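Researcher: Before we compare anything, I want clean individual predictions. No alignment, no superposition, just each chain on its own. First chain goes here; please echo the sequence and then give the structure tokens.
Model: Echoing the first chain and its structure:
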Amino acid sequence: MGVLAVSGQSADPTLIAEPHTPPALARVVVPAPAPPPAPERPRLISPALASALAAAMPAYDPPSAHPVPAGSAASGATGGPAAPKNGILRLPDYVVHDRKIREFSEREISTPKGLREIAVKRYITELDAALNAFQIPLFSGYSTAEDRGNAPEKRAMRAYDEQEARDRAAEKSDLEALDRMH
């Protein structure tokens, strides 16, 4: 079952049909018109400036197609890598000796408001927030209106500070143990 197709670039309709198909059942296909040519882009600089820039640039010198002989200065004679058989250039190994970038703690990076938000998310649970949503000023122990609304934040910051102090003490003891080993 082959397809008989006559095509061309003209705008004439093309008859597409299988062999032995009556002309009444054949499909007539009109080819799509050719796309219009792309519009010419305007130059961003004047022709005089383009020629001045082209004149100032060095002429392109393509790399030579001839490989460097194995006994030349580009091979292992200078202490560099030897020319490989497969033509892939190998660069010498480099070791970078530089100080590592210091890691910053949450306290150094965060603003006071951001630090409070981190502490509340870490140490105040939803149940705690629901149970402590309301306070009785007589028993809460906070004298100012500012302190009364921030009781959960203050407890969270106190827990955050205590945990940070424990972490610093553990790090200090690890360093002291490491120092004793040496």
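Researcher: Okay. Second chain, same rules.
Model: Second chain and its structure:
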Amino acid sequence: MANLMYLPDWTVTDYEIDSDGAYRIPASYDVVPDHCAKCGAVGNLYKHGTKTTVYVDAPVHGRQTFIEVRRARYRCRDCGGTFMQDLPDMDDSRRMTVRCRDYIAQQALLKPNTHVADDVGVDEKIVRQIGKENAAVLLEDHAATIRARTLFGKRPGRVKKEKEAAEAARKTAMVQCDLCKALFEPVILEISHIRPISHGGSIDASNRQKVCPNCHRLHTEDWLKPVHDSTPLSEYPIIAPAAPRHRPRDKTPSPPRPARA
């Protein structure tokens, strides 16, 4: 049963399903340390007992999985210090396997933290911490490789220059109405005949003009009058506004009223 965990250098002695439906897998790590973790002395170690620690693993067959590791303790003959066997496949700070930590980080991007915690068999707080750490790493990698234009944080001077350039391009693309001389976007202007074809006008380009919708309407109404006035709209005299019809208010003060007896 050495490959039940699919981890190299591990030996699985047995497995069982507990009353909660979770896998319980007793296992041991086969690699023996060759130097002291305290003083660095080589080849002068001996076993000094064992300790069983439970680590959470990624779910197997939809079941929560716990690995009961029989971990050896060693003592150094040179310095007298003791240390526990190193387990590279385990995250000692969270008492879980490294692949379980990676599994939680991936699932936290897809599911709520409570669902991931129930699937794995850990506290929701652990899932939240691992998810935040993974999100920070992803954001850092994304910020280092992003090439898209940022929407926020641009310098005010750059924003002003971009607005001025866009406004200048918009004005350059605008076309003048041949009658009122106002500027309009090209899609707004209409093609009109200076002299309508129904009144003897030609279809040549010399009889065409680009006008705004308002001037086009006025030009058409002018030609539909019983007696056509040939004066172009652009040459119409400017008529001063008529004087107001109401009488101006007399600002002369009225005589004082006599006092009552």
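Researcher: What stands out in the second chain?
Model: The mean pLDDT is 82. Additionally, The first strand starts at residue 10 and ends at 12.
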